[in-house]
Known about the structure:
single chain, two-stranded antiparallel sheet, 1% strand
Amino acid sequence: MAEASLGLFGAVKMVLGSTAAGFAFGETTIVAVEPTLTEDGPLLAAAVLATTRVGSTGVGVVTACLLFTSALLSLGCGLLLAAMVMKLLTRVGERTAWLAEAAAGPCIVVGAVATGTLGGVIPVWVYISAQCIMVLVVYSYSNINEMTTALLIIFTTLYFSVMYGRMGLIVGLFVMGMTISFLCALRKALTEKITYRPKANGSCRLLERILLYSVVVAMLGFPIGLGAFEGGEGGVKAEVALMLESVLWVGVLSAGLLGAALGTVSVVGLGPEGAGRVAIGAAVASSVALRVVLPEFSGLGARGVVGGILGVATTAGVSLGAASVAVKPEYRARNITLACLGSVVIGAILATRGLALKTILLTRMELLSVSLVAVVAFILGAPKSPFHTKVNLQGGLLTGPDLIRGIGMETVTAAAAPLGAGALGAAAMGTAALGKLGTVGALVAVLLALGKTLSGMTRQSPAATNVHRD
């Protein structure tokens, strides 16, 4: 009888944790619906001016790169702060390990929100200079030519995926499928007709990362374009406003998935009990940040508010991933798993309908999107998920605060990728806006980068390798 009571208590505890995580994520999406970017007069005027030169698609892609950079920086700084606090509490004694785990969630939220809102406090030139320095430091350890090619390919993929999304769901998917088929056929033709020397392992890893990043940005870019599908009506200003709203909406949903993925990797080493404490702490702190902290910083402007929203979205995603990790193996039965997934959906719906933070109500399509993303974020923490595993970083196989610190450093470093891609793409579009000669130059640069990547892939083909080995 006692064992049955303990089992029931454990199941209820996990369901409530899943509900809290879904509730925190749902509240974030309510804030994302507000026209935060379009209410900023100077920002909207600059976006309209840029649209007249490079088009609303280009403005949307560059804005998306900046949002992804902010999300990565916020989450990385939050993880670093949590690791530092956990390290300090752990040194006090082993008996305070539970306190360190309980404090990790709120610390992630504090670090992420503080980093995000910091963009609205410091001057623009300081913010941009700091990010440029970060990009230069990260890429100083890389091959500049190969990294430039990778960033250009990533930006081009994001640009075309947004453009395909603006064609509509059916036409956009069809054209995207035709483009992928053409590139696959071109790669196959190059593989059969051209023989190269095998490349080093470093180039192989870079090509694999380019392919992975391209798939990810295509999955993110297509919904952005789809959200701005009807942006041609109402003039340039209405088109830009719709594009910016679509970018913010998809950016917040993507930040939740990003937080769930990296949060899962970070808390796996803590075990189910530790992950449960992190999940509850992050969920409660995220809700508090939305209700108390962010309203106080509403006067910081669009940069600070959007940065804070993205920071909260990533930490809400961390709570979803950690809540999934917190489900113990003995509770992995089908009924309890479905109950946890249902509780995530119920929590998200309660946040957007029953206990809404704002009076804004989501449409059915938006509510469906929030529910699906919350469920996917929860599934990312499942045992069979590729993120539910121990990771070997440069320091080896790490656990506890050391692992969280390592993931935080990797996340901050990864923020240089979307920022570099956005800067390089903006330079390319600015060159193309100069006239026909600039357009031709930008197209030639993209084609050269694509050709270099495809030729690099052919070097890795088994046929070419076997010929040289023979």
